[in-house]
Amino acid sequence: MSRAMREISTSGYKGASTEFGASKWRIVNGPFVTVWIHNVPWASKDVMAAPQAKFSDGCLDLVIVKDCPKTVLLSLLLSIRDGSHVNSPFVTYLKVKALKLEPGQRVGDPTMGGIIDMDGEVIARGDDGINHDPNWMDYGTPFLMEVDEGLATLFCTN
C-alpha cells in the first residue's frame, strides 16, 4: 500500500463510537403515544417540541408522551406551542448521547408489529407476516442512534 493510501485510511472518518459498556442506560417502557427525537427546540414555527434542545450541546433530546386519556392528550397538544407540555406527568424528557429504540407490538392488536414513522411517513414496521410497501424497512433488531459530536461545523452569516 502506498504512503498516500495509508494516510487516507488512517485519517478518514471512522464512524460513531459504539462502545457503550461504561454508559449509564435507562429503560423506559410503553405504551407511548409518541416518541420524538430532536436536537433543536422547534419542530415548526408554532411547535416547541423540545424546549431544552440546543443544536451544539452534544445531546439528543428525547421526548416521550406516555399513553394518556384523550383529554390530557388534547391539553398536551395545545401546550406544545410554548413547550410547557414537558411539565406534564405524562411526558418524559431526557437529554441523551445515545438511544436504542425497540418498538413493541401494536396496542389493540398484539399480533402486529409496531410502526415507526418520520414526519408522518411510515419508514419501518415490525414483522406482522403481511407484505407491505417495499420502501418500508423491517426493524428486526432495535434502532441504535448516537450523537457523533463535532462531526460537522457550520459557518453562517446574516
TrEMBL record:
One Gene Ontology MF term: lipid kinase activity
Superkingdom: Eukaryota
Annotated ranges, domain YegS/DAGK C-terminal: 33-126
GO cellular component: cytoplasm; membrane
InterPro entries: Lipid_Phosphate_FormReg, NAD/diacylglycerol_kinase_sf, YegS/DAGK_C
One GO biological process term: sphingosine biosynthetic process
Gene3D superfamilies according to UniProt: 2.60.200.40
PANTHER family according to UniProt: ACYLGLYCEROL KINASE, MITOCHONDRIAL, SPHINGOSINE KINASE
The protein's name in its UniProt record: YegS/DAGK C-terminal domain-containing protein
Species assigned in the record: Rhynchospora breviuscula
